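This part of the workshop introduces the protein records we will be handling. Getting from the letters to the tokens is the skill we practise here. The record below serves as our worked example for the rest of this section.

…
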Amino acid sequence: MSNAFLEHRAKYREVVSRRYGVTPELYDEASRQLAPLAVPFSMRKGEYLQRIGTPAQYVHWLHSGVTRTGFITEAGNEVTQHFQTDGESVGAHDDLLRSRESEPALNFVVAETAIHGYRLDWSEISALYKRNSDMRDYYLGAAQRSIIDQSRRLYLNASPAQGRLNAFRREYPGLEQRISQKVVASFLGITPQYMSQLLRLDGSKR
């Protein structure tokens, strides 16, 4: 069992258990069940945890750094869906589900900063969910939260650019200083040039 994994996970017990709607005790039990599967990993900025076109194989859990999940449109434009930061699981859930039928991933996951954490094999996690009721309850909490977050982002996309920027800052406090302005623009669905104008206007109001 990875004691380092348990120590890192313990730092985020209160935040994540509240976010998933599970008890801290269930969070700890999930950590103990996952620990034997956790393999330490590190990546440099710009390296891919998951590539489009290859079946998803792993779930990653970060103890430091920032990753970004997105896709490429038919026109070749890159769209950012969401970010993952310290204490969060990393993986496009829909691609993980597709991988059960060996279908290729539609999303990429890339390191936006140097990252450190643990890699867990999705097939082993899935088997764990099937045989352990506590893990099923934990997975249900995580999946429900993912649905809520996705729904909120769909509503966000219908907001004016300034509203999307404000919502980004609320959802990811402090992240704007850790990633590039171009990436923030990709998340907001605007061009980098318009992002610069938006920031100048925002600064003039302060």
About this structure: The radius of gyration is 18 Å. The CA atoms of residues 10 and 163 lie 34 Å apart. The first strand starts at residue 39 and ends at 43.
